[in-house]
Amino acid sequence: MERANDKRLEEIRASGKPIYSISRLDAINRCLYESYITYILEERGSGNVYSNLGGRVHDVLEGITNHTKTESDLLPAMQAELADMDMLGIQFPKDRAGNDSIRQHWVQDMTHFCETYQAPKNKNLAAEELFIYETPAGNILQGYIDLQNKRSDGSIDIYDYKTSSLYVGDTLKEHSRQLITYALGKEQEGYRVNSASFIFLKYAEIQYIGKKNARSKEETLISKAIERYKIGSEMADKVEVDLIKAGFGEIDIEIILDKFKRSNRFEDLPEQIRDNYKMKPYVLQADISDEAKQECINYIDTTIAMWEALSKHEKDYPPRKFTKINKSGKESNDVFFCLSLCPHFKRCEYIHDFLDQQQLGGSKDEEDLF
Known about the structure:
Layout: H1 7-15, E1 19-20, H2 22-30, H3 32-40, H4 49-65, H5 74-88, H6 101-116, E2 125-134, E3 140-150, E4 156-162, H7 169-188, E5 193-210, E6 220-227, H8 231-245, H9 250-263, H10 271-274, E7 278-285, H11 290-308, E8 323-325, E9 331-333, H12 336-340, H13 349-360
Parallel strand pairs: 1-3, 4-5
Antiparallel strand pairs: 2-3, 3-4, 5-6, 5-7, 8-9
């Protein structure tokens, strides 16, 4: 996807003011050495499976919104990108047992999404619109918003597509700064922002009438976020109850449930059963309260001030920590980003030295003879 130069950006660049993005600020906080290579040495590095595949799916979703593509383009685009990555040797990370379950589940999730996605019929949608935001301190950020719903009263809802796993806890707070920045930018343009949300494409929201738990007597509308490859297994018990109530025999129920567990599609259920369920992409709203906005502004200004105070010497850009303290208070390795997502893994001597140390079974010490 090519983005045309915007006059607003040209004017800012002409003034000499630096322009940042929230992803750049996140990279600075994640690993200064990575940021040194990317932004000081201006080396792009290699891609990873998630950025490549996510980018290809994003492009098709943008085309669907702009009426240049259709839902039928999603699966071929994803499959083409998978083939390209296989050819280039860009791989998914292995699971703890060294198997390919991470790839298998991602492909299952996203294949299900591509095959079942139905684009919103709303005609007031906008894709990939530029926003520019200037903090009170004068720092400027820019970016492109995946999707906006422009309401009849002039207000907007903001959405960002994600092909990752769900964000929870501190991870949700950290990633929500992206949406908060979008909201701040649009508000600075004069819009009222109703909400800012992630659309997690690997997950579906399943709605049905049922009991909240075994103790409940009354039925109510239940809404569950389920990873797509697990829909059949997680909903099988509820579907089985529906089949029994509808009078299906034991053998028929076994055949129907087996197919449902394999396909994860309600379309494979009998009509009177499938009508009990509604499935749609899972949307998670971010906190865009005044308090959250102020925290985000502080994050932007503090990060930029720290970055701009650094020299151009490599020694001022140490790598991220490769260990963390887990919930039990013990130290554990924290190298998933380095191994799976960092664009500069191949050339980073720090992570390779750390991994060599781990293989040798200990740290290097000056007291050691060899």
